[in-house]
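Why SMP-30/Gluconolactonase/LRE-like region domain-containing protein? Reviewers of the renewal asked for a concrete example.
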Amino acid sequence: MSPCARFPSATGNLRNLTTNPPTLNVHGCVAYEGLLYVVTDGGLGETAYFAKIDPKSWKRTTLLNHYYEQPFGAFNDLEVDKDGNFYLTDSKSGFFRHLVPYTPPTNPTTYFVDGKTFRPKAVHITTGNANGVSLSPNGKTIYLPNTGVSQGDTKDPYGERGLWAYDLVTLRGKRDSKAPVLTNARMLTNPIANFYDGIRVTKDGWILTGANDGVDVIDPVNGDILGSIRVGGDGEAVNMVLKGHDF
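Here is what the prediction returned.
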C-alpha cells in the first residue's frame, strides 16, 4: 500500500504511488517545503512511524518510530505549523481495525514534534480516541475531534464525539520551552450524526471536518455548523486536502 495518491491531469484517474522503501498503512499526510510528511498505523513487523517522502524520487525516510523507546499505538493524522513543527495524533484505530497485533501502550495522545530535532512531547491525552488535528491560520489555536464513539467495527453510542478547540501557549521562564501548552479548552460543537474524522482549516479560518456522509463547515468562533458538503452514494468523507488552504 503506497503513502499517497494523485490525480494525473490527463486522465483524472487515481493511482497508487510506491515509495522506497515501501510505506504501509499510511493514515495521514501533509506537504511542507516540497516534501510530504506521513504517519502510519504500523502493522505486522513494524510499529507506527512518522516519515518524510521526497515526491521527486519517492524515497522515504523514517523520522520517528518510538516515544523514548515505547512504541506508538497507531498514528492517525498530523498537522504542520508555519515553522515546520508537527502535531501527531496517536490513536486506538490501528488496534480496533486489527492492523497492529498489540494493545495500545497508552491512551490516545497528541504529540508536538520539534521540526529540527524531531523530539516528541505529549501535549494532550484522552480516554476517548484521537483522530484529526488542525491549526488556525495564525497558529494560535489547535482543533482536535474526540472520536471515542468509534470502536473500529462497532460504535459506542455514549462515546465522546465532540470537536474541541484549545489555545496554544508557549511557556517562558528559566528555560524557554518550544513545545506549547494547550489551554482554554472549549467544545465547539457535537456532530448531529456519526462523528468527526479528518479536519482542516481554510485560510479564512473556517473549519472543515469529515462527518462520514459529508464535510461539515464550522464557524471557529461559536461552533455553529454552517452547512454540509454531501458526498452522496456509498462514499464516506474521512479526510480532505485544501490547495494552499483555499476554500
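Helices lie at 93-96. This is the kind of structural detail the renewal will allow us to pursue systematically.
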